[in-house]
């Protein structure tokens, strides 16, 4: 345990006690996780309900059926509680070994976001935004008002979510610790992977509301900002979009002074 390591470090003598204690602590998770410079570290952020956990575990478990995702995540949350952040490691020839930290977007956890990018060398931020769609509306029988009123209320809530997502996206882009990091904006859409009826106008409208045209024109962000839209429940690490994204992240990482992937 961490306590036992600290005790053993302190026993031989009092000389260098603090130094030995710090060295012992640095060898124990989760502190040790922050010391690894070999892996490309990515941070997956976004508001609550954006689809971050679904995306992370579809990347990790490609065969996880979309119909089981909601049920499995609800069961995990109910029986074990949400473990707060999630971390998974991956490997790809285009970028080497990389880890993804997925951190919740609740009001409490948003205040913890800086801890991750101030104490980890973050090479990429994956920012997930849920795209509102009329197909997503689930009107409850016990809601007050008719269907039209409920739809307007739901639209208002979703516009507020987009506005808040825009604020945090631009906030993160301007954080000093992330000025050299790649940014990947993922729009989580309702369209199935093989669906040819995707509403591209809705996607363009959301990009506009998020201020993407401005980001793509800024000198300091246009070469490190990328975007794509997908249904997170249908995604996988074998998707061509993901391979292209990893190559772009690797390029930004290298240009920012990170080691070249071999």
Task: List key phrases describing it.
262 residues; alpha/beta; 43% helix; six-stranded mixed beta sheet; disordered N terminus
Summarize it.
With 262 residues, the chain is α/β, with parallel strands linked by helices.
Secondary-structure content class: alpha/beta
SSE pattern, N- to C-terminal? HHEHHEEHHEHEHHEH
Question: Could you estimate the helical fraction of the residues in percent?
Answer: 40-55%
Q: What's the mean pLDDT score?
A: 80
The unreliable regions are: 1-7, 9-15
Count of DSSP-assigned helices = 10
Q: Please report which band the strand proportion falls in: under 5%, 5-15%, 15-25%, 25-35%, 35-45% or over 45%.
A: 15-25%
Give the spatial strand order of the biggest sheet.
2-3-1-4-5-6
Shape estimate: globular
DSSP, total strands: 6
- What is the distance, rounded to the nearest whole angstrom, between the alpha carbons of the first and last residues? 36 Å
Query: What is the makeup of the main sheet?
Result: 6 strands, mixed
- The Rg value, from CA coordinates, equals 21 Å
Could you please describe the fold and organization of this structure?
The chain contains ten helices and six strands; from the N terminus they run ααβααββααβαβααβα. The chain has 262 residues and is of the alpha/beta class. The protein has a six-stranded mixed beta sheet with strand order 2-3-1-4-5-6, with helices on both faces. Residues 1-7 and 9-15 have low confidence and may be disordered. It is 43% helix and 16% strand. The protein is globular. Helix 1 (2-10) runs antiparallel to helix 2. It has helices spanning 2-10, 17-26, 52-60, 66-80, 107-110, 113-119, 147-173, 200-209, 212-217, 240-255; strands spanning 40-45, 86-92, 96-102, 122-130, 182-188, 225-230. The longest helix is centred in the middle third of the chain and has 27 residues, at 147-173.
């Amino acid at each position: 345990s961490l306590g036992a390591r600290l005790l053993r470090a302190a026993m031989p003598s009092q000389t260098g006690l603090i130094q030995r204690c710090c060295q012992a602590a640095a060898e124990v998770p989760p502190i040790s996780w922050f010391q690894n410079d070999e892996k490309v570290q990515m941070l997956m952020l976004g508001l609550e309900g954006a689809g971050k956990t679904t995306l992370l575990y579809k990347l990790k478990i490609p065969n996880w059926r979309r119909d089981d995702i909601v049920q499995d995540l609800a069961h995990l949350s109910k029986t074990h509680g949400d473990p707060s952040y999630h971390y998974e490691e991956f490997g790809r020839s285009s970028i080497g070994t990389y880890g993804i930290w997925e951190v919740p977007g609740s009001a409490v956890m948003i205040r913890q976001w800086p801890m991750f990018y101030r104490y980890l060398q973050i090479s990429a931020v994956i920012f997930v935004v849920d795209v509102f769609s009329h197909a997503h509306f689930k009107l409850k029988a016990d809601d007050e008002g008719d269907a039209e009123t409920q739809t307007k209320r739901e639209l208002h809530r979703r516009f507020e979510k987009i506005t808040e997502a825009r604020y945090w996206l631009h906030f993160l882009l301007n954080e000093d610790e992330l000025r050299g990091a790649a940014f990947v904006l993922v729009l989580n859409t309702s369209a199935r992977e093989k669906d040819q009826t995707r509403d591209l106008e809705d996607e363009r409208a959301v990009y506009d509301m998020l201020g993407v045209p401005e980001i793509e024109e800024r000198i300091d962000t246009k070469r490190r900002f990328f975007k794509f839209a997908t249904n997170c429940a249908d995604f996988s690490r074998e998707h061509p979009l993901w391979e292209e994204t990893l190559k772009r992240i690797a390029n930004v990482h290298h240009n920012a002074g990170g080691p070249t992937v071999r």
